[in-house]
Amino acid sequence: MTCYTSVFDLFSVGIGPSSSHTVGPMRAAKLFGTTLIEDNLLTGVDRISVQLCGSLGATGIGHGTPQAVLAGLVGEDPETVNPSLPNELAAQIESEGTINLMDKHRIRMNPADIELLPHRILIRHTNAVVFNAFSAAGELLLSRTYYSTGGGFVEEEGAPATVSVDAELPYPYQYASDLLEISEREGLSIAEIAFANECALRPPEAVNAGLDRIWAAMRESIANGLDTRGTLPGILKARRRAAAIAEQLRSVQGERETSLEWLQAYAIAVNEENAAGGRVVTAPTNGAAGIIPAVMFYFNEFLAEAMDEVKTEAVRRYLLTATAIGSLYKGNASISGAEAGCQGEVGSASSMAAGALCEILGGTPAQVENAAEIAMEHNLGLTCDPVAGLVQLPCIERNAIAAGKAVASARMALYGDGKHMVSLDTVIETMRQTGRDMSTKYKETSEGGLAVNVIEC
Ligand code: SF4
User: Which one of 346, 379, 390 would you pick to mutate in the ligand 1 pocket, going by the greatest count of ligand atoms within 8 A of its CB?
Assistant: First the structure.
């Protein structure tokens, strides 16, 4: 039994604003289209109806879910789709009433064919999407239900949950205590354990090349965010701030210490890119996409040795350690805001970044575990209450603050010897229970918290 999830599943390149509400539904729609092709049904389809259930129905408009579904139905992937295409398709069904299903067969499609059903809650997961394909005579050709379980992961009704990799690993583990035991027994760091597991799935060169690609995409999202001004999409008309913050920080360069303010600017930059529907890396979700890149970039800019090869190695170890920790959250609790509240998204990312930073600052495995634990301990109970269903308020600033918590947690752990009262396993289980007990108002439905107390315009 292992909870290990590959770095390439946990960190996937996609478009914003949400891994569960944009990336996952797009993948589900493409899976449905692929099944139509495999079952030789595609050319008989005249119309498709889509039901966005539970949280997908509650905040789907603000998260761009209908547009994402359209992109998936025309055969696009989140990794490569032109970020402007989903909105263009939404305009197309308004004006023309058609889409080109899987880029092969034109069908009728109107805005009314995508229904928002916030009160239809399916048992397996609140983020459910149901597709029905009909012939011109109205005959139901194919019906499928998929669940978007957070971080862009999709599960089909009737198929087992995908909580881990499906391969023989050299170092399987279920809990943080197992991870520490393997580390002690084998004399390996957390990053080395994750690397060995990844090498069971693909050659070492491919692992390293893939890690470098993830980091390049993260860096690009920071650079784009720091470079772009204007207003974010949606009813809030929120101004982008990262570029202005960066400009102010450059103007005081050399006059005072600004590294932690830059850390915040990096996180805000990524999350503004995400909120604008730009390309980001799910880390482990889109709503929390700024924390892990920001902490790594902060290390590179302010803490690392100057040599590029040192930085490259540190990046790889950082992402691998974050993966080992993130797997614990995905396997034993949840990384989905709709399931566990924001503690599952931002809390998990903060914990992953804290442990990973501790590792590249020279922490022992016990200190890494301690850093990850501290960060989650102080994100417990965090609710998900995005105003107007947009991944903007409180999400963007929340990433900046959680990045700071990650750095503080890593530093605090490094002052200790790794021995501490609350274990990472305990805090993960506490997060799971807290998420289970949390009212649905606070789980990505925009029915509670800031979402009902902030005036939207
Ligand atoms: S409040 Fe947190 S969990 Fe909810 S959408 Fe924003 S970042 Fe995601």
Answer: 346
